[in-house]
Amino acid sequence: MRVGVLKIDLEITDSNSLKDKRMVLRGLKERICRSLNVSISEVGYDDKWQRTILGIAATSKDKQYISTMLNRVLHYVEKERTVVVLDVQMEIL
């Protein structure tokens, strides 16, 4: 079994409070999980209202499948109008 991890550092452009941030992230995470078979969690900048780091994980026995899934997640996030991708790290174990 292989595990892929994607770490995305984001700026949330339309956020003026932690409540706004949570609303944007909740919607984004729900849409991604509904369309792609991955797990998502906020793993950084919990107290900043315009920044976050999302950790995304996918498992499979096929390394290429994991890479494809994580790249789909990244492309999905990059298309979002409410966030700006600042940094990306991907690793497949």
Structural notes for this entry:
The protein is of the alpha+beta class and 93 residues long. It has one domain (2-92): TT1725-like (Alpha-Beta Plaits, 2-Layer Sandwich), CATH 3.30.70.1120. The protein is 38% helix and 40% strand. The chain has two helices and four strands. It has helices at residues 18-35, 63-79; strands at 2-12, 39-44, 51-60, 83-92. Strands 2-3-1-4 form a four-stranded antiparallel sheet, covered by helices on one side. β2 (39-44) and β3 form a beta hairpin.
The count of helical stretches stands at 2
What is the correct CATH architecture? 2-Layer Sandwich
Q: Output the CATH class name.
A: Alpha Beta
Helix content: 25-40%
The main sheet orders its strands as 2-3-1-4
State the separation between the terminal residues, measured CA to CA.
Answer: 9 Å
| pLDDT < 50 runs, ≥5 residues | none
* Gyration radius, rounded: 13 Å
Structural class: alpha+beta
Structural domains: how many: 1
Q: Strand-and-helix sequence, N→C?
A: EHEEHE
Beta-strand residue percentage: 35-45%
Report the biggest beta sheet as strand number plus sense, adding barrel if it closes: 4 strands, antiparallel
Mean pLDDT: 94
CATH superfamily: TT1725-like
Tell me, briefly, the overall form.
Answer: elongated
At the fold tier of CATH, the topology name is: Alpha-Beta Plaits
Count of extended strands: 4
